[in-house]
Amino acid sequence: MANLDTTVAVYGDVSEAEADWNALESAAQSSQLDIADAALVENQNGETVILQRQSHHGWGKGAVAGAVVGVLFPPSLLGAAAVGAGGGALVAKMTRALGRGKVKDLGETIDTGSVAIIVVAPTASTNGVCNTLKTAKTTTTAPSSSEEEVQAALKG
């Protein structure tokens, strides 16, 4: 199975992020990109809310990106059901896989804007993912885990 990377792209406003989100969805639908999971998140009055989840193209069904959101944001800043099906086991797996330094880097990236797209994809798709997120102010990618480890945590 493939190793996974987590990419965080930050935007100044929702319309820019939605344009890139639509491009990401289109690329996944046409099989140009292999994506495990993705989410579009926004800071709404100090609370992080997931606006979109890529639940119909990736195998993560919204859980993997939700778990990454759970890793990057303190629980007090998460909107209702933001982590969703990711649950504790997957959040713990992603926390260990990313490591403290990478979580800090990804968190600092998110702090530079109010809207972000979080994508978990096989390493072979990372360049394509980054090239699709064209209007992002800032993008950071970190190696995360393997598909096998994440899928085992989803089942557990």
Structural commentary:
The chain has 156 residues and is of the alpha+beta class. The chain has one domain. Helices cover 42% and strands 26% of the residues. It is built from 5 helices and 5 strands. It has helices at 14-29, 63-72, 87-110, 126-132, 147-155; strands at residues 3-11, 37-44, 47-53, 115-122, 138-146. A 5-stranded antiparallel sheet has the order 3-2-4-1-5, with helices on both faces. Helix 2 crosses helix 3 (87-110) and helix 3 (87-110) crosses helix 5. The chain is globular, with a radius of gyration of 14 Å. The chain starts with a strand and ends with a helix.
How many helices? The count is 5
Secondary-structure element pattern, one letter each: EHEEHHEHEH
Percent in helix: 40-55%
User: What value does the Rg take, in angstroms?
Assistant: 14 Å
* Spatial gap, N to C terminus: 18 Å
- Category from helices, strands and their pairing: alpha+beta
- Report strand %: 25-35%
Large-scale geometry: globular
Low-confidence parts: 76-82
Side-by-side strand order of the widest sheet: 3-2-4-1-5
What summary fits the major beta sheet?
5 strands, antiparallel
Rounded mean pLDDT score: 78
Number of separate strands: 5
Number of domains: 1
